[in-house]
Amino acid sequence: MKKAISLIIIMVVGFALFSGCASAPPLRTEASTSEIRAAEEAGAANVPQASLHLQMAKEELELAKELSAKGEKEKAASMLLRAEADAELAVALSHEDSEKLEAQAAVERVRQLRQDNQ
Known about the structure:
By secondary structure, the protein is mainly α. 83% of the residues lie in helices and 0% in strands. The chain starts with a helix and ends with a helix. This is DUF4398 domain-containing protein.
């Protein structure tokens, strides 16, 4: 009888340990990683304000991974949202900068055409 009780206790303790060690679902970083890649492709590294937000997004992504590893899933998920938002802002700032440059070039072409037609 003592062996049976000991065996049950060992099984319960083993199950509890196994359950505690079971990993939680992995952190979903695809959206943040994708948006960071989009910012890099949009040339965010070459636009000062965009570069700042791109760097922040990368740091926030890494922090989210660290928080997830520590078991702080809610904080990690929140940090991922921040990373994604900063990366999106970097994309927008990059596009704004390139559009400004295109507009300035168009204005310059118009000036040149006006000069040529006088």
